[in-house]
Amino acid sequence: MTQKCSTDRSKILPTVVSIAIVSAVLSLQAVGQTISDKLPVLDLNKPIRMNFSGNWEKDFARSDKWEDELNRRMTIRQGNAALQRSGIGLRGGPSISLGNISLNKPRRRQANLLDLARLSEYMNRFSTVEIFQDRNEIRVERKGEAPLICSMETGPTKVFSSQHGAEICGWDRQQLFFEIALPDGLYVIQRLSVSSDSQNLRFITSVSSNGSAPFNLTQVFNKYQAPIDEYNCVQTITRGRSCSLRIPLN
Q1: Could you give the number of structural domains in the chain?
Q2: Average pLDDT of the chain, as a whole number
Q3: What is the domain-level CATH number for residue 127?
Q4: pTM for the complete prediction?
Q5: Residues 97 and 24 in one domain
Q6: Is the separation of the CB atoms in 194 and 200 below 8 Å?
Q7: Cα-based distances in Å from 154 to 46, 48, 129, 170
Q8: In the chain, which end has fewer C-beta atoms inside a 10 angstrom radius, N or C?
Q9: 61 and 33 belong to one structural domain
């Protein structure tokens, strides 16, 4: 009797193990199906971009000072003048192009280098940046400045075009750029790039006049956790700026 019971158990054990393996496989398949249902579907028609979203504050120690950049450019200009006096010719700057957008022909006279430097400094006077980004659009908010808005699509996008100038935006690999052409041949390029860990933002502004060498100013920003704004403010023409509490106070 003892030997018979042992034989029966040896036959039953493989069957139990097989049932357990099949049950485990089915459970894993069910879990995998549940996880795959929760994962977002990747749209291959839309390009993958770096994450620019968040709040950023300027790192003054790592950012360019417009006075230092002006002195550097003045040194370069003096060197170019010396080359010209020695009979060595220098080529002019690149021509202005904004894709297929028609612009007014610029004047020949170039703006003063000091004016370009002060304009760059004025355009970078903000110390904080807030960026909103989704799969369709990116919006760069700067205090005291109009927001920079661009599509996430590949290729240049026309932002506006009028007698007062024209602006396009687009992507150069993982860099976001805005190009602005203004009357009298003034040309502005703003480029934004973010580090691989999305903790540092570089904001480069280039200003040129009638094909002159651009005056470049690089600003570096670090990501920070901004406090929650308790007020929701709306600007209207009739009532001006009106604010209400976003979170009721206890």
Answers
A1: 2
A2: 76
A3: 2.40.128
A4: 0.63
A5: no
A6: yes
A7: 8, 10, 24, 7
A8: C
A9: no
